[in-house]
Amino acid sequence: MVDIEIYESANDYEKFQVLRPDYNSAIIKSIELARKYIPPKGNVVVSDFCCGTGMNSNKYASDSKIKKVNLIDINSKFLEVARDSQINSDKVNIFNKNILDYCPSKESKIVFSIFAYHHLPDNQKVLFLKKIKESLANRGILIFTEIFFSSKELELEYYTKLIDEIPKDVMSKDLELFLRQTSTSSDFEFKVSKEFADNQLLESGFTLLEELKIWPTDKTFDRSIGTFVQIYRLDEVV
Question: What is the CATH number of the domain that holds 161?
């Protein structure tokens, strides 16, 4: 049995995630910035890494049809939802596999890595970034949305604060269980410090264009701890 039970139910997963102030605000800002840097239009190819139910690509292309979307996720139940979600694209490719087994084409103008990087064990994270590089066309844009911690203790404090700040009329026993299981997971959660991720992206050849801290917005934690949306560009000599 997996240590985060909600991963067995795609519908409950999306329903619970959008109730989180960190997650929901980060998704909104991620899509807003994706549209700023690469406006959705007919010639855009998107790759959505660890796409879940395909919500991010769906929101991105909601009012303007794009050329193609590549959806990659290891969870077949999530991909069933994504397949039925009618993403506004001429072509939707579904890849039910571990992201490290994905063989991309260098065609994407934009890659979504939205709460995806932390699902890879630390010794595999650089391989994950390599897959992104293999997907992006020159000067392509990476939407990199993540939660950063420098210790497991801070991660537990973060989720405790999150549980405390979700309104009582929104919180349920199942949602609280999901958040507590997430904070202690060793199967799916391999979060790292912002410094670790920043350095790895820089060393992999990405250029940071913009970043925003999403949550928490108060001074509970150090500036580098919490949920961030970062925009990177891949510049390669061709």
Answer: 3.40.50.150
Residue 235 lies in a domain: no
Boundaries of domain holding 13: 5-224
d(C-alpha 88, C-alpha 151), whole Å: 40
Q: Which residues contact 77 (CB under 8 A, 6 or more apart)?
A: 8, 9, 10
Show the CA angle centred on residue 53, arms to residues 132 and 187, nearest 5°.
70
Q: Which helix (H) or strand (E) holds 31?
A: helix 21-37
- CA distances (Å), origin 156, targets 58, 143, 161, 229: 32, 26, 9, 21
| pLDDT tens, residue by residue, 51-97 | 999 999 999 999 999 999 999 999 999 999 999 999 999 999 999 99
Using one digit for the tens of pLDDT, what is the confidence trace for 110-138?
A: 999 999 999 999 999 999 999 999 999 99
- Please give the biggest Cα pair distance in the chain: 55
Task: Provide the whole-model pTM.
Answer: 0.96
